[in-house]
Amino acid sequence: MITIVWDIDDVLNDLMRIWFETWWLPTHHDCKLTYQNIRENPPHRLLSSSIKKYLDSLDDFRRSKNYEEMQPNPAIIGWFHRYGHLCHHIALTSVPRKAAHISASWVLRHFGDWIRTFHFVPSSRAGEYLPCYETEKSEYIQKLKQADVFIDDNPANIRSTIPMGIKCFMVSRPWNHGGTPLYKILDHLRNMALKNENKTE
């Protein structure tokens, strides 16, 4: 079986859109931005905000019931129901240490039938001091030595992983300028999974 490494936020779910539309906009009535206009990530400059205020807001959202109740991307959960059993799956996210358990719980609740392994590279926060192991997802993937496919929305993560010979897909989002539409990625994954299954029969 091939092993797929999945980013969580903005891949398995629509965190940025849901945070922005249900958490940020209701308390910032003067904001004229739309989700499709979020051409940078982090988007604090576009929001006329400091990076700290943006991260604090995002972290507050993560700790709220809104994150817990966020639904998975319907196309991806549909793909898992049809083809998930044909692959091994790993979740790999960049998330603050204080919210990692929330992210893990969300993944296992929605994808636990297929994703049995959760890993995170801590996103740095002011005043938080943690042992330094890996600082980038690519470092963890290299250490893992079993990934065949990596799916993420961050161009830097994709660029640093491609040289390892791993098939990388960047999910198209407003801020990454040139990613691949999700339906095309899922088609590729289906074909890869079915091709690999045929080889093993």
Chart the SSEs and their pairings:
Elements: E1 2-6, H1 15-24, H2 51-62, H3 65-68, H4 74-83, E2 87-95, H5 100-111, E3 115-122, H6 137-144, E4 149-152, H7 155-161, E5 167-170, H8 182-200
Parallel strand pairs: 1-2, 1-4, 2-3, 4-5
Helix pairs in contact: 4-8, 6-7
Description:
The protein has 201 residues and is α/β, with parallel strands linked by helices. The chain has two domains: 2-14 and 72-200, HAD superfamily/HAD-like (Rossmann fold, 3-Layer(aba) Sandwich), CATH 3.40.50; 15-68. It has helices at 15-24, 51-62, 65-68, 74-83, 100-111, 137-144, 155-161, 182-200, and strands spanning 2-6, 87-95, 115-122, 149-152, 167-170. A five-stranded parallel sheet has the order 3-2-1-4-5, with helices on both faces. Helix 4 (74-83) packs parallel to helix 8 (182-200) and helix 6 runs parallel beside helix 7. The model has no long low-confidence stretch (mean pLDDT 94).
Keywords:
single chain, 201 residues, alpha/beta, Rossmann fold, 2 domains, 5-stranded parallel β-sheet, 8 helices, 5 strands
Short description:
The protein is an alpha/beta fold. It contains eight helices and five strands, in the order βααααβαβαβαβα. The chain is 41% helix and 15% strand.
Task: Please give the share of residues in helix.
Answer: 40-55%
- Which structural category fits the helices and strands? alpha/beta
Alpha carbon gyration radius: 17 Å
Count all strands and give the number: 5
Overall pLDDT level? 94
The first-to-last residue Cα distance is: 12 Å
Number of helices: 8
